[in-house]
């Protein structure tokens, strides 16, 4: 397995874990302090809907990264070449946003997780 493939799988696994968290908070579990600014233990309806949408976005991100790494072939070549750079920028901004969160839980968990996602997406984007 190449470093690029490994990075793509690490990113995908991390996103799968985030997807589970988002589905749990969308279902009303009291772990909202880890997402959406950490202002609510149980998310209000609008943030629950946002969590479901986030799961869909995570799936799209995983497909783009896995495509770029050569694991699957499901998106256009343009999306596979530009997408990972956009994703890298997104996760890099996520580091800043999560580090600035008022939620101690979100800062402690999501900031380093975004850093891992940013590094993995950068490795894939550079391939």
List how many beta strands DSSP finds: 0
Distance between the termini: 14 Å
Mean pLDDT: 96
Query: For the report, how would you describe the main beta sheet?
Result: none
Strand percent estimate: under 5%
Number of domains: 1
Low-confidence stretches: none
> What radius of gyration results from the CA coordinates?
15 Å
Roughly how much helix do the residues carry, as a percent range?
A: over 70%
Tally of alpha and pi helices: 4
* Coarse shape: globular
Order of helices and strands: HHHH
Features:
4 helices, mainly alpha, globular, about 130 residues
Describe the structure in brief.
The chain has 127 residues and is mainly alpha-helical. 73% of the residues lie in helices and 0% in strands. The chain is globular and about 40 Å long.
Provide a descriptive summary of the structure in words.
This protein is mostly helical and 127 residues long. The protein has one domain (3-125). 73% of the residues lie in helices and 0% in strands. The chain has 4 helices and no strands. α1 (3-26) runs antiparallel to α2 (45-68), α1 (3-26) packs antiparallel against α4 and α2 packs across α3. The protein is globular and about 40 Å long. The model has no long low-confidence stretch (mean pLDDT 96).
């Amino acid at each position: 397995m190449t470093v690029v493939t490994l990075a793509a799988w690490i990113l995908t696994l991390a996103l799968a874990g985030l997807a589970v968290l988002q589905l749990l908070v969308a279902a009303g579990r009291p772990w909202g302090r880890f997402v959406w600014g950490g202002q609510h233990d149980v998310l209000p309806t609008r943030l629950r809907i946002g969590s479901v949408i986030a799961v869909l976005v995570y799936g799209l991100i995983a497909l783009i990264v896995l495509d770029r790494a050569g694991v699957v072939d499901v998106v256009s070549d343009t999306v596979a070449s530009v997408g990972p750079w956009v994703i890298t920028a997104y996760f890099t901004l996520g580091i800043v946003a999560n580090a600035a969160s008022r939620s101690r839980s979100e800062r402690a968990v999501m900031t380093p997780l975004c850093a891992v996602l940013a590094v993995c997406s950068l490795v894939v984007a550079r391939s």
